[in-house]
Task: structure prediction
Amino acid sequence: MVVIINEVRDTGAFVAYDVVKGVDNREYPPPLVEEIQRAVDEARSSLSLDTLKDHPVIRAYRDFYWRVVKIDPTKQRPAQEALLRRVLRGEALPRISPVVDAGNAASIKFLVPIGLYDLAKVKGEVLRLRWSKRGEVFYPIGGSPVELDSQIVLAADGQILHLYPYRDSVETKIERDTRDVLVVVAGVPGVELSRLIDAALYLRKLFSLLGGVAEGEVQIA
Result:
């Protein structure tokens, strides 16, 4: 059983997390395609590109970027905001894989960033949400290795899975043969815990369409 220990509560960062086992990440069942399109349609009917940045949930993540992450959110947008902007411009969600696409659908539905990790690649069952140590190296998906200095990370034993709350590691990337998935929904001050839990439960529903079965209850850290 995976356990996440939160060592950065003073920043306001918190997570809901879940483990779903036995997914089939090779084929898109029609009900999943329909659920993803439904999330897109809901976003387009309820949100506006012009006012998205002022939505209270999006604003909470932008404020966290400025205050804690020290990143300009107009240059490095929160992951869910970037996806929503794409959708609200009339573009489709990226087609990557059934598991990743389900995660993106949950992200735009609940306006929260969601990290998905191949559990078989995670080193150990105890993970920590903590400040990085000087000299630690992060290997991002789609980018060059980054030497870290005082950034919030989700880490296992000698392994950085995630830069909080916006970038995942290639080391634990979801791939075609992934079967067991660790789900991490990232929260910040001003975002209700219930929103994170609802996102995780919705993702359970989508993963069940891929044959996935949740292990235990959604956990909080």
Q: What stands out?
A: The chain has one domain: 3-220. The chain is about 30% helix and 25% strand.
